[in-house]
Amino acid sequence: MPKSNPETHVIDFRAAERLLAAKDPRGAVKLLDSVIAAHPENTAARLLRARAFFAAAQLRPAELEFELVLEREPDNAFAHFALARTFERAGRPEQARRHFRLAAALDPKPEYLRAARFDPEA
């Protein structure tokens, strides 16, 4: 059976979700590479791959994937939050602050508001 059919891509996507949950981000990235090669427009797969890159401490690839997701979905609060965490981890606090604030403005979840530190000191 060929590896590149829509059903296989769904199976690979779900398996990648499980691998990421099981703390195997590199395995998740490998599965998602074929899904994204076949469906480059699939934002959900790109967001999952960005999360896997982040979990594997591959910050530059994570940054690029989160930015691609945000080009397509500029109002994706989670993608802004995750990109901010990526910038924070990479020692880029100004860029992180901007995306934490965008995330909080788009979706006032308590964790987003805390990260955005909407106070005069921030």
Automatic annotation (TrEMBL):
* Keyword terms: Repeat, TPR repeat
- Please tell me whether the keyword Repeat is annotated for this protein: yes
Please name the SUPFAM superfamilies in this protein's record.
Answer: TPR-like
**Gene3D superfamilies listed in its UniProt record:** Tetratricopeptide repeat domain
Task: Please list the residue ranges covered by the TPR repeats.
Answer: 77-110
A Pfam family? TPR_19
Per its UniProt record, what InterPro entries does this chain match? Answer: TPR-like_helical_dom_sf (IPR011990), TPR_2 (IPR013105), TPR_rpt (IPR019734)
Q: Which SMART domains match?
A: TPR
Taxonomically, the superkingdom here is Bacteria
Q: Could you identify this protein by its name?
A: Tetratricopeptide repeat protein
